[in-house]
């Protein structure tokens, strides 16, 4: 993986690390502050991505060798589609800018849904 490809991952990780102490004081269930909602969405995304990563490892462990490549390709394609679809959803046609909160929330929601889908698939395999 190139350094350029890792930059978004590093940026999200750094922003979460910097926001983490403040996040402890945020009630993500009741806040209406945009900056706090963004921190909450990023925390949700990080948790969902950890769930997906764990489910990917479980899935790869039980697949036959020829299925591993198919699964890995599907996950890579899904992640690219998720990011592109969320970027489109976050894009403001009037201003020509992207809304960070919409982007983060979309990615978190889609990743949580993917985790549910992977868990369901694992349950049908076993």
Q: How would you summarize the topology of this molecule?
A:
Layout: H1 3-23, H2 34-62, H3 65-90, H4 100-125
Helix pairs in contact: 1-2, 2-4, 3-4
**H and E string:** HHHH
Number of domains: 1
Alpha-carbon distance between the termini?
Answer: 33 Å
Major beta sheet summary: none
Look at the structure and give the CATH class: Mainly Alpha
Annotated CATH topology: Substrate Binding Domain Of Dnak, Chain:A, Domain 2
Structure characterization notes:
This protein has four helices and no strands. The protein is mainly alpha-helical. The chain has a single domain (3-125), classed as Substrate Binding Domain Of Dnak, Chain:A, Domain 2 (Up-down Bundle), CATH 1.20.1270. The model has no long low-confidence stretch (mean pLDDT 85).
Task: Provide the descriptors you would attach to this structure in a database record.
126 residues, mainly alpha
In short:
By secondary structure, the chain is mainly α.
